[in-house]
Inverse folding.
């Protein structure tokens, strides 16, 4: 009997003249969590797409599950029957449907004669798998009403719907990306219960903290090749993994922590109410200053970028810059752009980029009216702006004509960053700019943010990542649920976490 649940050997894939995977091998044991990591473009996504039948591998690959050879190219029905299931980054849930309906998608129980869905049995199946996972969710609840953790739990429940305890492999493709830090522990507990039964997990993630906290072993890819095969995580550090991923040591940016009190204020926010009934927030941003904003979910820190940029209307509040004043309860994105505020949103797929358009077209969009005319838009200036951004941000692409959907997540994020830098803002507002990007892309993005500030632009950075905040922020504002604000100047992520998770005394006197 085989000692491995999943064996993938000699996995190669060539697109045109480019080999994106070169003789990759990885082995997943029963009842283990095995991480697959690498920077964007290393081949992780291609591996998952080969395992699930989206891509056909080059000749020579072999794939076995519990010792049984799988016919290639993979057929989805065959691979799911063999016990492989996938939980994608977006979870693939339908908000207008109930938990039971989402768990049943792709495998509804139907009556024998009329072939109608047997809802009684379907609810029973959903309840059984939820009970197995110890998830306290009513199967009749609409998924759109669930929090991020419950949604992820429903995604896992659907993946386990047809699996017997102790069998199969769940592929988690960045499935924990949307979970707030304090909910990860709960979700990790769920995964540990799953693998304790003998089911295996192949976890694709950018989060090196999560790999060390959760995975038993890790396989590391760089440029389509394995550079670390089934390494025991107990003997690794984040720096060890990052060095293998990048082929070099990743250093931190030089600490900012500048006293910018003599710099002019480029934007001031007064009386900002993030939710009705919550105490108002006031803050100032000076020329060249990076101000961080963080807190627990529910404190309102995540909504601050959208309220101060006009993407959402605030219950109350005002914004003032050299260009004028905006009533944030009435103004919109256009008003805030005119005032010099540009937003880089968290969801590049939904709010930030046109995926069916090119890099050049996306970067040009904010300036079409300003640089073009009703009769002639012009292409030369678009090409110049795109080429400048590609060089400045080290965007990995064949050309500026590459479609956004063809780029890795980290390079998509860089294009989004370039898109809003192109408007020459007085203040750049960012929400989770390094989410779901690899360590190399993260460093490029943070370096670019610091360069923007060094040019005199004010930066407001909202993030739940203490490491990002302490690395580049001059000061950090920690919001609490009662509306109080703690201001920190620190290079310790632990200081930020302590302020986030503990009640603290608000900063006294005037705007933060």
């Amino acid at each position: 009997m085989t000692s491995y649940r999943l064996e993938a050997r000699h996995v190669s894939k060539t697109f045109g003249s480019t080999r994106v995977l070169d003789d990759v091998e990885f082995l997943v044991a029963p009842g283990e969590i095995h991480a697959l990591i690498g920077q964007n473009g290393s081949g992780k996504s291609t591996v998952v797409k080969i395992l699930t039948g989206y891509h056909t591998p080059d000749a020579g690959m072999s794939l076995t599950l519990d010792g049984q050879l799988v016919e290639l190219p993979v057929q989805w029905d065959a691979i799911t029957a063999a016990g492989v299931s996938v939980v994608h980054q977006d979870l693939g849930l339908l908000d207008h449907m109930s938990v039971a309906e989402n768990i049943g998608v792709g495998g509804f129980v139907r009556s024998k004669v009329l072939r109608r869905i047997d809802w009684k049995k379907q609810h029973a199946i959903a309840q059984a798998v939820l009970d197995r996972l110890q998830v306290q969710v009513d199967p009749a609840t609409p998924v759109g009403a669930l929090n991020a953790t419950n949604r992820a739990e429903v995604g896992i429940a659907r993946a386990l719907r047809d699996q017997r305890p102790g069998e199969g492999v769940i592929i988690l493709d960045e499935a924990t990306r949307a979970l707030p830090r304090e909910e990860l522990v709960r979700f990790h507990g769920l995964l540990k219960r799953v693998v304790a039964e003998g089911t295996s997990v192949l976890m694709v993630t950018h989060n090196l903290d999560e790999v060390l906290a959760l995975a038993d072993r890790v396989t590391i890819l760089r440029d389509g090749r394995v550079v670390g095969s089934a390494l025991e995580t107990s003997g690794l550090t984040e720096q060890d993994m990052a060095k293998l991923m990048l082929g070099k040591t990743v250093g931190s940016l030089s600490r900012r922590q500048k006293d910018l009190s003599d710099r002019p204020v480029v934007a001031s926010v007064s009386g900002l109410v993030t939710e009705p009934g919550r105490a108002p927030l006031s803050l100032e941003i000076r020329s060249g200053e990076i101000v961080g904003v963080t807190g627990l979910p529910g404190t309102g820190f995540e909504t601050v970028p959208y309220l101060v940029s006009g993407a959402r209307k605030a219950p109350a509040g005002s914004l003032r810059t050299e260009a004028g004043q905006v009533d944030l309860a009435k103004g919109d994105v256009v008003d805030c752009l005119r005032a010099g505020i540009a937003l880089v949103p968290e969801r590049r797929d939904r709010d930030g980029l046109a995926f069916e358009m090119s890099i050049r077209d996306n970067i040009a969009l904010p300036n079409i009216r300003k640089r073009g005319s009703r009769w002639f838009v012009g292409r030369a200036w678009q090409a110049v702006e795109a080429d400048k951004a590609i060089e400045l941000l080290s965007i990995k692409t064949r050309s500026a004509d590459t479609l956004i959907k063809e780029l890795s997540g980290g390079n998509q994020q860089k294009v989004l960053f370039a898109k809003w830098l192109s408007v020459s803002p007085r203040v750049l507002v960012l929400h989770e700019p390094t989410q779901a990007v690899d360590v190399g892309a993260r460093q490029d993005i943070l370096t670019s943010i610091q360069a923007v500030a060094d040019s005199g632009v004010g930066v407001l950075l909202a993030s739940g990542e203490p490491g990002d905040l302490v690395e580049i922020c001059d000061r950090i504002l920690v919001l609490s649920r009662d509306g109080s604000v703690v201001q920190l100047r620190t290079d310790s992520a632990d200081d930020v976490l302590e302020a986030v998770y503990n009640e603290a005394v608000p900063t006294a006197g005037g705007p933060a």
In short: Residues 14 and 20 are 6 Å apart (CA to CA). The mean pLDDT is 83.
